[in-house]
Amino acid sequence: MRKARGIHWTQFITSLVLTGAACAGDATGPAPVALVSVSPAAHTMFVGEEVRLTATVKDAAGRTLADRAVTWSAEPTSIATVTADGKVTGAAPGVVEIAAESEGKRDHATITIQARPQAPSVATVAVMPGAFELIEGETQSLSAITKDASGAVLEGRTVTWSSSDATVADVDASGKVTAKLPGSAFIRATSEGKIGSATLTVRPIPVASVTLNTHRLDLAWGAHAPLVATAFDANGAPLPGREILWSTSNPSIAAVTTLGEVVARGGGTAIVTAMAGDKSDAATVVVTELPGFAFDLIYDRWSGTTLIEPALYRVDIRTVDATPHPIVPGDRTSDATASPNGDKIAFVAPEGGHTEIFVANADGSNVKRLTSGTLSADQPAWSPDGTRIAYRLSANFSPARIWVMNADGTDVHAITNDAPGEHHHPAWSPRQADGSYRIAYAQAAMKDGYMRAQIWSIRDDGTDRQIVSDESIGAYDDEPSWSPDGTRIVFVRSGQELVVVTVSDRNERPLLLGDIDGEQHEPAWSPDGSLIAFVSSHEIDPDGYGKQIYTVQPDGTRLRRRTFDHTDKGNPTWIRR
Known about the structure:
four-stranded mixed sheet; 1 helix; 49% strand; mainly beta
């Protein structure tokens, strides 16, 4: 029997157990993935937001397998995307499944993506402050408040700043305004198409002082001179370009242009002022109207208390504001005439119920009587050579005549006895070619029921009487005065008009340009021929005194008032200074 080939059953069972144990696996090998779990399993977020998901991997025994690879995916990818480490980003509103897979096992999370809620739009923009002022160079920061339609303030909105005039002021991105030049501008804040604005006024740097380049100008009549004004700030720095306002206290003496050019228009003193802001400086302008003029005016002045007590006054007309002064002590002197060299005056004063002619030194001293008698002597006129005086002699019941005497009162004789009518206001011509003189005068007589008068002239010996003014007009021509060259005579027509007549052809023209109201009287041609003085009532003083002394050039230009006190004036005549 073969017992050695057989296997005992116990050995077989042992072999099966060992074999089965081997088939159960090696205890040192990797455990397979049995479960994948994604957390959170569901999530809701807005477009653009992110969330990170986690995937937990486990084996069949529930042990976590941290080293296993996980693959992430999104479906659909148009709703959200997922990175390799599980970060999900919402791309569009919708629902997306985010899956995690490891060794064939997978799980997923459901993510809901919502559209972001619509933020309220800007309805209004308000700039604070709404109106403000700055001085050149100053700065100020503004704020812009944005609100929605309900009035709720919207924080964090983008604001853009701008200026309507960057030459006046500019503004930076933060709303800081810098004032640059005087003027106005709107500072605007814009947010989401809405605009708010603030009104800005830029003021110039305040002027602390104004200084002129000179504080006195001495000008001749008609001259021009510039004044320059400089404005300064409180620190003494010049302020270029500042507007200077110019003014004058008397434009008839010194006018001033908008650029500070001073124009001398008439003799006297005026104050020219330059002003910048509320600060000013001034210059005194002294205008010598006739710097080379060699004659003063003498005239009658009534005190105002009575019209029968005049006094003689003298004034230097080179400056309008010169002060007149009396030249013969006391009142009741009038009708002055000066010697050609200016050292003496003849004048009229009452004596024994009538008037007589006296002579005195130019300062009123050493008074002597020249005429005497029972008739009234007045209207004296000194001859150009200084040797004789013509005058009117009249009485109540006899016609007035023109008489001539030596300057010392001797050799008295009438020269118009043969002429009819009344004779007034003798006036000497310059020396004629034959060495003689002519005397012009007014000859008055009744005609057609009215007193008429014309200007005549006669040789100084009483011969060759000639009519000068136009007798056909039927006016009352009076008070003649010769031009120094002897070619013309100025006279008064009917107390209303000054007329210049050419002696050679008797051609007449008005002296004054334009219409002048009031009465015009007693013209007197200056010895140098440059001016004619006369009395006019065309400017009535507030106190009712209307007769003042004026001068005018022989062509009618440069009419100037020469007396200003509130008294009536008369009988102007010239005296050499």
